[in-house]
Amino acid sequence: MKRLIVNADDFGFTRDVNAGIVEAHTKGILTATTLMANGDAFDDAVRLAGEHPTLDIGVHFVLVGGRSLVSGAALPKDVPALVRAVYGGKLDLYGELAAQAAKVRAAGLKPLHADTHKHTHLLAPVCRAVRIVAEEFGIRFLRRPLDLDLPFRAPLATRLTNFLVRDRARAMDLSPFRVTNHFAGFALTGRYGTRDLQALFAGLPEGVTELMTHPGHCTPELMNAPTRLKQSRAAELAALCDPLTRAALDENHIQLTRYQDL
Description:
Elements: E1 2-11, H1 15-26, E2 32-35, H2 42-51, E3 56-61, H3 79-87, H4 93-106, E4 113-116, H5 124-136, E5 141-142, H6 156-171, E6 182-184, H7 194-202, E7 207-213, H8 220-223, H9 231-241, H10 243-251, E8 254-256
Parallel strand pairs: 1-2, 1-7, 1-8, 2-3, 3-4, 4-5, 6-7
């Protein structure tokens, strides 16, 4: 059996991203999302989650960008800055991640799955802290960002980065947590359309695959937000809601599912 979880990262980032995620769920193939506890639109996301109980909500742990829930200070601005902060002992990883998980739980949500913004749990110290917090909060699934070999032409820089990420992802110690059999979306992020999803589905292997997505509406709110993914979110939303995309699932005998259904 081929089963597919279509997960949207960045729930809670901006209100237009939130609206796009909900639309991808109600009108498209999206089945799950992960929530940023320190996102500017967190309260809006919690409200939408309550209105759409079939949307599977997890935690999107954030250590890059935005503000700390513990100190209120700005978190490292990028991954190199995070590496310096982590190995320089300047960031309380456990405290920050626990505060984020606690905020999600306090909002009345019971997340069963989690991932990290910018895949920062590829760093061993972050991975250890994520595992400790996940166990304490009853999170059972963690993401292993080991991208499938996709029939898709990404830029050389993306392919080189993906090669390094895949190598690190293979070495990740995520026990005793569950992971999907496969993962897709790293090379696709910000540059796919309906035809690319059709090609992905045609070659999808047996088992459970998580497809990472970043849909959203691109309004002035998103345009002014600190992210490289802007207009591409609207393009992803269109692809996820395209009837041809859903038809490709049926043609390839792929069943949509959620973490809570596994």
